[in-house]
């Protein structure tokens, strides 16, 4: 058996924790997270839209399936959110043209009423809920805590005091500088190519810059990592490993979390079928192109609101689109690597392909180096 | 002496032509092109804004300096251009609000009149001039012909019949398919990270897709290649080499082609200080952010025109901005790698750094592969 050994050894991650390859996998599905870890990677559960008591139960569910193997949880902690979870107060701030625009989309595409609030409106991000989420994570035995947006030093300190590895996702150098100042153990340099919330600097341009800035702190490359060649390229750029999301969307373990419309969008999409839009959350978010992103990009459409006000505006209709699988509005967060994935596979197969191809790419490169007479 | 050996050997490029490393360097300065080739790379002269007789003289100038070493020339051949070089006819098509917008910028920033037409208006791209440029290149002894935009099969055939290596720059898979159909010898997969005319797919996401599509045709990675780690990463992704532009902007050989304002913009810019704007040519073009790109992005600004009509609109004012070095409108085409470059260096130093660091990165990766007990 071979293994990719990287600077993650400094953290004790690859040695102590038995990683076969420095591949971190992000998912909103607990089944996917457990499968990544059990396949020798490092599963990370995207829990930011879950209530504190749900997070507690879900982390315990994963632990029961992975035993001593490592896994993580990801939270999003933006700087400015309301103090309390008070939807009624925020509703009053929504401009009338924005309401009319949403009602227009509901009418045009005959969107049925949702049975309840959507993923973005079941609770509204607030200091109160964020604090309770952080407490639930700190009290759990999760091994790693990743911060997808925002990196408050006190959260990093709390988690480190509990013996957890702390990670910040960054899309530009100034965010990395802040995260390093906060004392994180690991950075994820996530480029423009990524799915979900993302920035403007291409993954290829971003990764080595963050590596140089990070000094002794290891960096994972994120945004477009889809094949083992990407894993090898990330290591060539000085990354200690990779952070992967899109590759685990079309997996058997994720199937129950996707609607038919979402699966179809993911299967047919190439890189050029994804767009960055602020229509999802008020922040730039890469997703498969659909009537949803197109309506918001059309002439005369309103500008998306700030976060989390935009969540209040769109949470219910996004929930209805998902619940009733409304075409052609159905879409999914996805990165520019989506073109590589066109069928459901077990997570273990995705992991095996990434690892084997990375090793082959490194061996091929070694052969490219030859000594020749001067 | 060591050398990076890649699939370019199949073309006979690295063996027959004595490349030390598979690094192709693009420049609008003949001095830079000659220096890249003389440093063991493959210089390519961006000649699309030059008249046929100028191209003939400039290719001969380079040949006199590089001897038998290889170099290339790059032309841009868009599909739809006017038949003749008739500026007066195009002027009539420019909408009044666009003229007023340009006059507003001239007044606001006190732009002096130019002494003559600018780079984009000294001639207007037309079939007549393109045909004469192609004839001049075909008649020259240049080794390689790159097509930056457009890939007409008859041009590829003409150049191959003259024994020249043919290359197409592509930013998405469907462009690559057309270029392969046209019979090119080499593809350049140029991602969103690149300076100048560029597309939406990140370099990291684009390169391995084009490699897979290209089969036996070698692919160069372009868009953000700034360090030897990028060269190693490109090889890891399956590329046979790299195509570099931004790294050669701040070089001593290019200094006489830059205004002080352009140098300052390049020196201070980081990746996030570049923007993609259609304000330069009517097509998406990455450049350093300036009052020029900001004015065109402001609310109420007109949409850029199509190409080449937009050239007619902006050619003279862009020429005046350059001639009189007008701040804060001064800017330069540049890719997201610009943050790596902050001082003038000789081309040979840039080449030496790229090569040495690429070799070191590959050696480092080889050590990451270890056999461990199963």
TrEMBL record, chains A, B:
InterPro entries: Aldolase_TIM (IPR013785), NMO (IPR004136). Keywords: Dioxygenase, Flavoprotein, FMN, Oxidoreductase. The keyword Flavoprotein applies. It comes from the Bacteria. One of its GO terms (molecular function) is dioxygenase activity. CDD domains: NPD_like. This is NAD(P)H-dependent flavin oxidoreductase YrpB, nitropropane dioxygenase family. It comes from Albimonas donghaensis.
């Amino acid at each position: 058996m071979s293994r990719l050994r990287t600077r993650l050894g400094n953290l004790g991650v690859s040695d102590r924790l038995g990683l076969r390859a420095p591949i971190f996998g992000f998912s909103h599905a607990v089944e996917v997270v457990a499968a990544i870890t059990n396949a020798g990677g490092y599963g990370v559960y995207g829990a930011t839209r879950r209530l504190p008591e749900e997070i507690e139960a879900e982390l315990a569910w994963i632990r029961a399936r992975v035993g001593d193997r490592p896994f993580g949880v990801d939270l999003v902690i933006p700087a400015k959110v309301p103090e309390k979870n008070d939807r009624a107060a925020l509703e009053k701030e929504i401009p009338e043209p924005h309401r009319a625009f949403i009602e227009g989309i509901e009418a045009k595409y005959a969107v049925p009423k949702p049975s309840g609030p959507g993923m973005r409106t079941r609770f509204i991000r607030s200091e109160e809920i964020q604090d309770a989420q952080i407490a639930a994570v700190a009290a759990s035995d999760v091994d790693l805590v990743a911060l997808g947006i925002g990196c408050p030093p006190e959260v990093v300190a709390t988690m480190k005091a509990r013996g957890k590895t702390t990670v910040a996702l960054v899309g530009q150098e100034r965010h990395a500088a802040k995260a390093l100042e906060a004392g994180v153990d690991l950075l994820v340099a996530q480029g423009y190519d990524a799915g979900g919330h993302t920035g403007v600097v291409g993954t290829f341009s971003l990764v080595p810059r963050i590596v140089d800035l990070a000094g002794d702190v290891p960096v994972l490359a994120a945004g477009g990592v889809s094949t083992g060649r990407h894993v090898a390229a990330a290591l060539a750029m000085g990354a200690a490993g990779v952070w992967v999301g899109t590759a685990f969307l079309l997996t058997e373990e994720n199937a129950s979390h996707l609607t038919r419309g979402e699966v179809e969008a993911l299967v047919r999409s190439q890189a050029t079928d994804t767009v960055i839009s602020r229509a999802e959350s008020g922040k730039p978010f890469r997703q498969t192109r659909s009537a949803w992103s197109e309506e918001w990009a059309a002439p005369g459409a309103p500008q998306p609101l700030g976060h989390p006000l935009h969540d209040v505006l769109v949470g219910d209709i996004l929930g209805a689109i998902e619940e009733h699988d409304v075409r052609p509005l159905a879409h999914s967060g996805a990165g520019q690597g989506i073109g590589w994935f066109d069928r459901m596979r077990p997570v273990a197969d995705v992991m095996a392909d990434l690892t084997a191809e990375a090793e082959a790419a490194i061996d091929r490169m070694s052969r490219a180096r030859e000594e020749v007479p001067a």
